[in-house]
Amino acid sequence: MSDPRYPPEIIERAEALVSRIQGVSSCRISTDELGVITEIHVVAACQKPAKLLARDVESCLTAMLGMNVDHRKIGVVFIDAAKPDEAPPEDHEHVADADKAVEFPVEEFASRFEFQSVNLFISQESIQAEVELVRDKLEVLGNAETANVNLSPLRVVAEATLRAVGQLFEESNRFCLDDVQEVVVGRDSAVVVKVDLMRSRDVKSLVGCSLFSGNINQTVVFATLDAVNRVLGKLVSRKSLEYRIK
Hints:
The chain has 246 residues and is of the alpha+beta class. It is built from 5 helices and 9 strands. The chain has helices spanning 8-19, 50-65, 92-101, 153-166, 216-228, and strands at residues 24-31, 37-44, 74-78, 114-122, 127-135, 138-146, 173-185, 188-199, 202-211. The strands form 3 sheets. The chain has a 3-stranded mixed sheet with strand order 1-2-3, with helices on one face. Strands 4-5-6 form a 3-stranded antiparallel sheet. It has a 3-stranded antiparallel sheet with strand order 7-8-9. A hairpin with a 2-residue loop joins strand 8 and strand 9 (202-211). Helix 1 crosses helix 2 and helix 4 packs across helix 5. 28% of the residues are buried.
């Protein structure tokens, strides 16, 4: 199978997206005359191992732009971050309030869910969706169904995604779908998903977005995962997982 080709506008969008990853200072993507990616140059100022940062870049491009990039083409160069004595003085009066504002910090080393497949079945009686994901080599399958055939199928796909995610966490952590919307950003179509994370008496609203990847159902899965992936390190995982024989 030949390597995928990407037009210049997609390459520029990918560079901007990678540059937004925490710890990344800049990104430059090299392609040949056909638009095939030959190398991704990443400059970073963080303590994360290069291999993990390269995996983050690979996952980000896949989830947000549907780009399949071999992580071996990703080169990471680290630069020295500002030394502690070079940092501006802290305003101690506001430090406590700032700490309180960070309710769900990003867990950089938490494993994220990876997309495997999505199937949607629509009949005169019901709408059914099936989503398969992988996390830490564990495969999970989420199913959702509704008899309301007037309901948007995108909501059913998002619900199936959340049920797949929920299989790996204790019931004290519940993801509840709030809304799914198709939006236009510039000249591109995208899907935005809003999810409520229920933890005891607390509710945390999460939002994820993914540009249209050529398959609307797959785009919904990517947007849903974008909403939940960055808080996974704060959740309590199940100690065991029951598997259903297919």
